[in-house]
Amino acid sequence: MIDFRSDERAKLSGATRYVADLQLDGMLVGGVVRSPHPHARIVRIDTSRALAIPGVRAVLTGADVPQVVFGPTAVKDWNILARERAIMIGDEIVAIAATDRRALAAALAAIEVEYEPLPAIFDPELAMREDAPAIHPGTERNRPLHVKVERGDVDAALAGAHLVVSRRYTTNRIYQGYLEPNAVIARWDDGGLTLFAPSHIPTRARETYAAAFELPLEQVRIVVPPIGGSFGGKYVLKIHLIAAALARAAAAPVKIVQDRTDDMEAAHPRVPIVTEIRIGVDAEGNFVGKDVVVYADAGSRVYWSPNVVQTACTRPDNLYDFGAVRAEGHLVYTNQSPTTCMRGFGNAEALFAVENVIDEIAEQLGIDPAELRRKNVVRPGETTIHGWRISSCELDACISEVQRLSRWERRASLPRWRGMGIALANHVSGFRPIDPRFEGSNAVARIDADGNVEIETGEIDLGQGLPGAYAALAARVLGVETERVVVRSGDTGLMPYGIGTLASRATVIGGGAVVQACEALLALLAPYRDGDAPIARAAGAYGAANGGNRAEASARYTPDTEMPDKRGYGNASPNYPFAAHVAEVEVDPLTGKVRVVGYWAAHDSGTIVNPVGARSQVIGAIAQGIGWVLMEDLLVGGGRVANPSMMDYRLPGSDDVPPVEIAFVETPDPNGPFGAKSLSECAIDPVAAAVSNAIAHAIGVRGCDLPLTPERVWTLLASARSAAVPA
Fold it and tell me: pTM, whole model, 2 decimals?
């Protein structure tokens, strides 16, 4: 259980203890022998030399762990260790626990594995061919998920359109880039398995891990220490299970801390997506139809990529009135490391394609790209084509505000090699399909006679400022100073049940539970309160009348949402945030290097609960988005990561991020705590599109493949020059 009251000070001073810093009595260190082949039959494993090394306490192969088919989603394709085949470079073959790192390193080097290489496949479109190698036999066309959605007559709409723009866009694998590499400590006792693990969905992870070891749920406990960043990369991980298997075999706690190379080679990066898109408009610029086909690379196993594909196929349809929409999504296995969610969760990838095509339409119609968007956006009170009820929407105001901040009128007269681009975005504040059984949150609030407040929640802080938001909400309800509120979380054995921090649900859904728990606490104390006397006095009176116990109340918040039907129709979130961003770039025509020289963002996130935290979220998202669109690329060839180090994987630095101006259009939403909506993921959703649209404006040619590195931009310029030369 983590006390977050002094969390920021502890992090700044270096006092925060992450998993790697924790020590348990008798703890061993664990490591993994990984496959050097993308696809191979495991012919023979010899562990005898490793077992003979002093200090080695356990050596496990696939034959030594439970042979259970399990997984974190509806697709069950996980194992703890590979038994018959390796299906990616980095696949876990042998696990070892030893008393120290020297013994562990010697044992890992002593393992002998004989492989028979098998044909491998790395392109999802090729992997769908009938003659492609079967990665998971029984999965037709290597496709664990096939999405088909259609509303309205798309063919007729596009056939009758004044203009249809078609393009093929690709987004790439990028590493989440968290500062804390993946790590875990596993321990068994009479109560079962305890994992100290930085997971931001510990309740869901607990279910997966219980299934892997065929344990009752109550025999798995996950304690979440402070998390050094995640951005979607720390949901459910096989190293947690491997540490647990080693700890049980060795009868001692086992810690595994991946070094950066291991973390990146076997990472679960952003799902790379190919989007074939068509959007049609009438002569006045009204959208009439949208058609997309998505190909997504799941890698060798399914993590959370199905949710990403479903999001990419449908979420932008709720940002604009497209008239008629159709989407087909293919999630496909390849012999590469599994992919998973990353901030933006498929929406950012989809909007990169959508927002670029909208800019092309504006160019061809001679309409200002901001005004074309304004003409077609959803409005408050609408129900979208997929059934979202838009209780509040300030997109019109966001567009106006970002035009004002950026002085958008300059766009027409910028000097050569300068460009400005605009992009819009929407997102959710929680998403009912994440867990159809329950999409809500629980919280406990208590107060002592000194006015000190404790909040307990099942939601998880990733460093995004959740404790500050919950403290602000509790302080507002109870009428105390924020500094008097402690927020505790991170233990499935002690804290209230929580789905976890994903789908931008923490502030609205978790915060909703905090507000209701504090309101219940006020009601409990009402008989003890004398007029406007401080609440601490009432808490003291309550304690005196109840044997010295602190006043305590709990609440369960369940949003008024709908589980979408089989066709994906339904109001899946309590409310929906929106944003408009503008980027300004300067391009060096000799090298293709792009510099972002200005950035402006206007957000409709309802009432802002924590202003400092909100601004930080937007700036961080913009920095992350700039890294994605201009430089970040997890390079994989033949299934092998070519740049598995922070020296070779280019993350944005302070010089890459321009001054950012931010405006919040604060219209309270009726379905959020004090009118709040989510912010974090919506803030990254438009960045890639805004920057790429600015580049296209600067150079007169459009890049469709991320990242837009200097080499790619230079090639675009060279191609444009060649096309301009008469034959």
Answer: 0.95
